[in-house]
Amino acid sequence: MKTVLVVYWSMSGNTELMAKKISEGADADLFTIDEISPEEALKYDKIAFGCPSMGDEFEEGEEFYQWYQNLEYQLDGKKIAIFGSYGWGSGEWMEDWEERLEEAGYDLFEEALMVNEAPGPQEEEDCFNFGKRFKDY
After folding, report:
1. Which of 49, 75, 46 is CA-nearest to residue 135?
2. Model pTM above 0.90
3. Which of 5, 8, 31 is nearest to 115 (CA)?
4. CATH number of the domain at 2-136, out of 3.20.20.70, 2.40.37.10, 3.30.450.40, 3.40.50.360?
């Protein structure tokens, strides 16, 4: 089995920058949802999923959500991390996503990593360190 995957969807590039920094820290394979199938993603032991907020509910990131639904209930035995950026509110959608994963009994790594707008130097370092910790999880 492969080790660490960072897979994401980004609209403005903010979540993409987060994904790149997380994958650097985790020494992970990095793909957008257009570059890897859900079946291929499931070959990894650890998966960090990234999606920006498109509103106040997880399901509003429709393109990502449709891709993610194809593997959401097949994550048993995987270590999962989630991350994303948002432009308004306080990241309630990410808390909803955490709750979904916890209710399903999945092995969720830490709290979700959220960044308001574009990551600055400190947030980029936070993303890198998040990836390092996830690799060692």
Report:
1. 46
2. yes
3. 8
4. 3.40.50.360
